[in-house]
Amino acid sequence: MVSCTISGVESAANLERVKGSSKLPQGALTQRQMFGEIGVVKRFIPKGRHGRKIHRPMKPRYITVHSTQNYNGDAWDHARALERGKLRAPKRRGGNRIGYLTWHFTVQEDVVMQHLPTNEQGEHADFDGTGNNYSIGIEMCEHNGNSRSQTLKRTAKLCASLMRQYNLPLRSVVPHYHWARKGMSPEHKNCPHYLMTNGRPGRKWNDFLQVVQREYDRIYVPAQIASMSNGFTMTEAKAPGYKGL
Ligand SMILES: [Zn+2]
């Protein structure tokens, strides 16, 4: 079918305790508010079954973006298939480790479905490589009638929100292409294909990253909190129109 309980909200909770969400600068929002704006529906693969039979904890260091190349299935269809363990892959040494394909989020024009907690590994990128061991996997839908631009916008917001949540830089947002699949030909998959240029990251991917950065810049971070989490003092919070504390 396919080719190719958010945790750690404590920082946002602290932020709101310190600041109070009613006092945000105009146009800014908290990470939690942005996550809310995206419209995430949790439809987790049942714990202990199918692709979650083995508990595989993860500390996210990257965000990997894919597209489904499935012109029939929408996000709800993918959620159903994952929940029921329908997305099988041959388990083999040096290849798929669990016999299933799994990832964290599926995005379409009007909704995001979440299939795995972000502190558990998926099986979507590069077998036993860094992409699976340390990245949050996002699939963008391509079914007929789905707006690509709205899907990209929602995906960019999701990436920005996750970057803020896990304190990740923009360079941590990578296409599936980024991860080498050992033993596969080609080693680097042309995915998400419509954001690649001649099968690799180029202008279209950079344009997408710019949208992610713009969304990230909308997330309000008081200088106090930013200096605590980054280990240096920011003179200005990341929010449009914000003039400092
Ligand atoms: Zn992919």
Question: What are the salient characteristics of this protein?
Answer:
245 residues, Lysozyme-like, globular, 8 strands, six-stranded mixed β-sheet, alpha/beta, 7 helices, 12% strand, binds zinc ion
Task: Explain how this protein is built.
With 245 residues, the protein is α/β, with parallel strands linked by helices. It has a single domain, classed as Peptidoglycan recognition protein-like (Lysozyme-like, 3-Layer(aba) Sandwich). The chain has helices at residues 10-19, 31-38, 75-83, 130-134, 148-166, 203-218, 223-230; strands at 40-42, 62-67, 105-108, 111-114, 135-140, 173-175, 196-197, 200-201. β3 (105-108) and β4 form a beta hairpin. Bound molecules: zinc ion. The site of zinc ion has 5 residues, from loops.
